[in-house]
Specification:
With about 140 residues, this protein is an alpha+beta fold. Helices cover about 35% and strands about 20% of the residues. α3 crosses α4. The longest helix is centred in the first third of the chain and has 13 residues. Its cofactor is Zn(2+); Mn(2+); Fe(2+).
Length: about 140
C-alpha cells in the first residue's frame, strides 16, 4: 500500500480527502514500521494543534477496516503500519523496541492438518524480538 493507493481507496469508499488523512498516511509511508496512535498525534500536533486522540483513532480504525493499515499489539498498546505491498501469504518478525518489521515466508498453518472439526477463517503469525540496531 502507498499513499496514492490509500487515498484512491478512501475516495472510492466515499471518504473525503483531507489534509489530516493525507498527512497521517504519509507518516506511515515514511516510517515503514509499527507506530502507536500517540506517535501519530505527536507528529501531527504541530500542523493541527486541536487534533484529538479520538480523531486519530477514528481514522486509524477506518484505515484498518479498509485494509490500508495493519494493526498489532505490542506491550499492551495497539500499533499500526501500512499494509504490506508483498503479494501472497507471509508473516512478520517485529522489533519490540523500534517497531521495525521483516517479512517471514514460512507459515505454521502448513502444519495444521488435524483441524477437520474446525473451520479456520484466518490467522496471524508474528515473531517478536529486537532488530540489530536495537540490540
Amino acid at each position: 500500500m502507498d499513499v496514492t493507493k490509500a487515498l484512491l481507496l478512501l475516495k472510492e469508499k466515499g471518504y473525503k480527502h483531507t489534509g489530516k488523512r493525507e498527512q497521517m498516511l504519509q507518516l506511515f509511508s515514511d516510517q515503514k514500521r509499527y507506530i502507536a496512535a500517540k506517535d501519530v498525534l505527536e507528529a501531527m500536533q504541530g500542523d493541527y494543534p486541536g487534533l484529538s486522540f479520538d480523531t486519530i483513532y477514528r481514522n486509524l480504525s477506518t484505515f484498518v477496516d479498509l485494509g490500508i493499515l495493519e494493526m498489532t499489539e505490542l506491550d499492551g498498546e495497539k500499533k499500526f503500519r501500512f499494509s504490506c505491498a508483498i503479494d501472497g501469504h507471509h508473516h512478520h518478525v517485529i522489533c519490540l523496541s523500534c517497531g521495525k518489521t521483516k517479512h517471514v515466508h514460512l507459515c505454521p498453518m502448513d502444519d495444521f492438518s488435524d483441524t477437520k472439526d474446525f473451520k479456520i477463517v484466518g490467522h496471524k503469525f508474528e515473531v517478536y524480538g529486537y532488530c540489530s540496531e536495537c540490540i
